[in-house]
């Protein structure tokens, strides 16, 4: 039997206390976002359809991206208990320099299209957070502009090599002069991937005003206002002309790249050299023998070859092959700090994240990128605490099992051949 009574006013007051009033609606929405998935939903509302799809989308049937995300999600953690985890150190050395977290912000082309604050905002957040940021060759901010916006931070530069080597030589020396310490050579783009959403949306770079985009503009007035009232949106490091992303890539990049180009770059770049887009044990070994300091296991966020190997599944065999000869980095499909922890436990030195921070950028400019990094940071820290691990170096393969959705015969190369997604 429950005895009821009237509540006293003094008991009601704390319950009725209103939430603090935030006049900035974007800030309030960002504060309410509790995951990268929440930021993605905000981004979808804020950015024009074609811009959101360019970021969110992948190639062909988008199987590469879906599988990569499924494998991260299928990770099973194995916690250890009764360890003092009141203090956790998430810092780690990556390619000879410090990083406050075991992840790096990946290069993404034309970042000012997602939000006018673009690469400068991302560089500023990375510097504040103490993690490296990688500027893309297809960036919409200059090499020097990013170094200035991210003063005090570590800058990495991503290079596409194309037919005219003098341009690459000039970019590389500008990056060295501006204090960039690491160069990523992307090798998974001999030709552009077929990104169907861009074709369907009629996306052109830079965005042009057609009847369709004009109508869409009515629903995203802020984005269009920003576009039309700020510095024109252009590629800052190359004269690529305009067109669809596919046309731009195919006009600029060199399908004839070989290992000799890695050797050439090694001779022309004084800092650390990472080869981005490695998808097999054999290729990892080849580029390291040619002078690379690290390989980045990546299928370009699923934007190039569809049904490609899942990068998470390549970590262990590649680490085993390379030993202490080179560092192993990984990206594609990372949406949670727990994915980063899993990557490190499997043997990666660090992970890179692309869309995760771009969703934040589209959702709210620099404040959105900051929210994305904060969400990932808190997830990394919490996952480590729940695993009973206080230092990144103590994360071990014993802490995780990859319960891959994809079960197929072992790949001859040591990775696992992709089969049908099971979730
Ligand atoms: C919108 C967008 C643009 C990208 N542009 C580049 C680029 O210019 N150069 C490059 O090497 N990789 C580029 N990437 C790939 C990323 O560097 C990274 O490999 C990928 O985003 C990782 O997957 P994730 O987005 O699931 O984290 C781009 C990715 C996205 C989403």
Automatic annotation (TrEMBL):
Its EC number is 1.1.2.3. PROSITE patterns: FMN_HYDROXY_ACID_DH_1 (PS00557), FMN_HYDROXY_ACID_DH_2 (PS51349). GO terms for molecular function: L-lactate dehydrogenase (cytochrome) activity. Keywords: Flavoprotein, FMN, Oxidoreductase. Its cofactor is FMN. It is an enzyme of class 1 (oxidoreductase). The keyword Flavoprotein applies. Residues 28-405 form the FMN hydroxy acid dehydrogenase domain. Transmembrane segments: none annotated. Signal peptide: none annotated. Belongs to the FMN-dependent alpha-hydroxy acid dehydrogenase family. This is L-lactate dehydrogenase (Cytochrome).
């Amino acid at each position: 039997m429950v005895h009821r009574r009237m509540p006293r006013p003094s008991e009601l007051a704390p319950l009725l206390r209103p939430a603090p009033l935030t006049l900035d609606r974007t800030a309030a929405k960002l504060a309410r976002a509790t995951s990268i998935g929440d930021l993605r939903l905000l981004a979808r509302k804020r950015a024009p359809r074609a811009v959101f799809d360019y970021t969110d989308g992948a190639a062909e049937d988008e199987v590469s991206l879906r599988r990569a995300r499924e494998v991260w999600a299928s990770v099973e953690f194995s916690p250890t208990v009764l360890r003092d985890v009141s203090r956790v150190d998430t810092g780690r050395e990556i390619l000879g320099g410090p990083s406050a977290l075991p992840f790096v912000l990946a290069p993404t082309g034309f970042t000012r299209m997602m939000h006018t604050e673009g690469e400068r905002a991302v560089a500023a957040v990375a510097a504040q957070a103490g993690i490296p940021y990688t500027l893309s060759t297809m960036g919409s901010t200059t090499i020097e502009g990013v170094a200035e916006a991210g003063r005090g931070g570590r800058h990495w530069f991503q290079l596409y090599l194309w037919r005219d080597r003098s341009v690459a030589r000039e970019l590389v020396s500008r990056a060295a002069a501006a204090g960039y310490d690491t160069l990523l050579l992307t090798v998974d783009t001999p030709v552009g991937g077929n990104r169907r959403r861009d074709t369907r949306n009629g996306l052109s770079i830079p965005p042009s005003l057609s009847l369709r985009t004009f109508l869409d503009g009515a629903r995203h007035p802020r984005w269009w206002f920003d576009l039309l009232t700020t510095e024109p949106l252009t590629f800052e490091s190359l004269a690529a002309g305009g067109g669809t992303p596919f046309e731009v890539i195919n006009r600029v990049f060199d399908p004839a790249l070989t290992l000799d180009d890695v050797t050439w770059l090694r001779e022309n770049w004084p800092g650390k050299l990472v080869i981005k887009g490695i998808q097999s044990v054999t290729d990892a070994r080849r580029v390291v023998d040619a002078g690379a300091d690290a390989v980045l296991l990546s299928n370009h966020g699923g934007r190039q070859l569809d049904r490609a190997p899942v990068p998470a599944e390549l970590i262990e065999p590649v680490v085993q092959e390379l030993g202490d000869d080179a560092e192993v980095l990984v990206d594609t499909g990372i949406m949670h700090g727990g994915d980063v922890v899993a990557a490190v436990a499997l043997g990666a030195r660090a992970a890179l994240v692309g869309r995760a921070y771009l969703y934040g950028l589209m959702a709210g400019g620099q404040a959105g990128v900051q929210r994305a990094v904060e969400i990932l940071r808190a997830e990394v820290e919490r996952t480590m605490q729940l695993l009973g691990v206080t230092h990144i170096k103590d994360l071990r393969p014993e802490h995780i099992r990859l319960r891959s959705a994809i079960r197929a015969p072992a790949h001859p190369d040591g990775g696992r051949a992709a089969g049908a997604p099971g979730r």
